């Protein structure tokens, strides 16, 4: 019985045709799947024109240094459908009477990006309702109306 299974057989043109179809079919299938995912996910584009962006590099770097010198810190949380931001200055005091806006989205996709305006409460925290699914999220927080230049911070957080 085993001898019959393992006896030498002739390798015909049909066998070669099947091997070629399977080999190239596998390669083409994998390429199509990878091309689909590359096309449907985040493009990786951060700026539209890198040359124009480079002309503003020194100005933006100086603004970031001024922002860092303020010593502000931000804490974020997301519970029960409410995104909350707490802002504290370099002296440990809550930052009140500011306008806070956050653009929230997945770090690797722009499909679910949304911009929300957070409302202040009496304790120096800012909150807004928004529905976020489970996973890694990134919030680009912009604080204005404090007498300073707009203060910006990107924060990543996980929703479970």
Automatic annotation (TrEMBL):
The chain crosses the membrane at residues 16-38. InterPro entries: FixH (IPR008620), FixH_proteobacterial (IPR018037). It holds the Pfam family FixH. The keyword Membrane applies. Keywords: Membrane, Transmembrane, Transmembrane helix. This is FixH family protein. It comes from marine sediment metagenome.
